[in-house]
Amino acid sequence: MPVHVVDHPLVRHKLGVLRQHDISTQKFRDIASEIGRLLTYEATKDLETEKTVVQGWAGEVEVEQIKGKKITVVPILRAGLGMMDGVLDMIPGAKVSVVGFYRNEETLQPVEYYVKLTKNLEERMALILDPMLATGGTLIATIELLKKAGCTKIRGLFLVAAPEGLKRLEATHPDVEIYTAAIDSHLNEVGYIIPGLGDAGDKIFGTK
Ligand code: URA
């Protein structure tokens, strides 16, 4: 399974700011969005372009434009919304497919409570957004519903990933490509990433 750690000074710097315990909601939100942009830049590196001729300031000029490949951005509620603006800044024409899950406290399995997918998923590349790839349970549930809807090209964008979640994903969906700003040490006993960022949803929405 391809795992791309986006190892760039800007990303490393911004992630360092996100890790600070006393970061404000506004700053956390801004930086989550900025890293979202930088991850998108990497995750779209292989999009095909085609040549076209436009009228430039000094006459006709040959330029390139992104070929027909359509993209859907898939924020996982609610924390995934925190990366969405940055991603859409880079791909303004992308459609948005929103998914939400809660955890069944008996089975511990993710149960969908909101799903609104764009049409023609078989023609689109999906970019799943979630700041934290922890156990991988919600990510796998999202991948399964996208595949069921016909999507064959799926990438996931994360601020931080845990080795446990990556291992589980490798075993279940090795075709999915992961882009993350960092792979951290481990999950603690309640499923938080260490050192991680804490509860990314609370930090983005200011609900702590
Ligand atoms: N979700 C979070 O917000 N943080 C973690 O560390 C793990 C899951």
Automatic annotation (TrEMBL):
E.C. number(s) listed in UniProt: 2.4.2.9
Annotated metabolic or biological route of this protein: Pyrimidine metabolism; UMP biosynthesis via salvage pathway; UMP from uracil: step 1/1
Binding, uracil: I193, G198, D199, A200
Amino acids binding 5-phospho-alpha-D-ribose 1-diphosphate: R78, R103, D130, P131, M132, L133, A134, T135, G136, G137, T138, D199
Names of required cofactors: Mg(2+)
InterPro entries named in the record: PRTase-like, PRTase_dom, Upp_B, UPRT, UPRTase/APRTase
Keyword Magnesium appears in the UniProt entry: yes
GO molecular function terms listed in the Swiss-Prot or TrEMBL record: GTP binding; magnesium ion binding; uracil phosphoribosyltransferase activity
Regulation acting on activity, per entry: Allosterically activated by GTP.
CDD domains from the UniProt entry: PRTases_typeI
Keywords on record: Allosteric enzyme, Glycosyltransferase, GTP-binding, Magnesium, Nucleotide-binding, Transferase
Catalysed reactions, semicolon-separated: UMP + diphosphate = 5-phospho-alpha-D-ribose 1-diphosphate + uracil
Manner of cofactor binding, per the entry note: Binds 1 Mg(2+) ion per subunit. The magnesium is bound as Mg-PRPP.
Superkingdom to which the source organism belongs: Bacteria
GO cellular component, one term: cytoplasm
Keyword flag Transferase: yes
Phosphoribosyltransferase domain span: 5-207
GO biological process, one term: UMP salvage
Pfam families: UPRTase
Family: Belongs to the UPRTase family.
PANTHER family assigned to the protein according to its UniProt record, in alphabetical order: ADENINE PHOSPHORIBOSYLTRANSFERASE, URACIL PHOSPHORIBOSYLTRANSFERASE, CHLOROPLASTIC
Function text: Catalyzes the conversion of uracil and 5-phospho-alpha-D-ribose 1-diphosphate (PRPP) to UMP and diphosphate.
UniProt-listed HAMAP family: Upp_B
Protein name stated in the entry: Uracil phosphoribosyltransferase
Organism from which the protein derives: Desulfocurvibacter africanus PCS
Upper lineage: Bacteria, Pseudomonadati, Thermodesulfobacteriota, Desulfovibrionia, Desulfovibrionales
Gene it is expressed from: upp
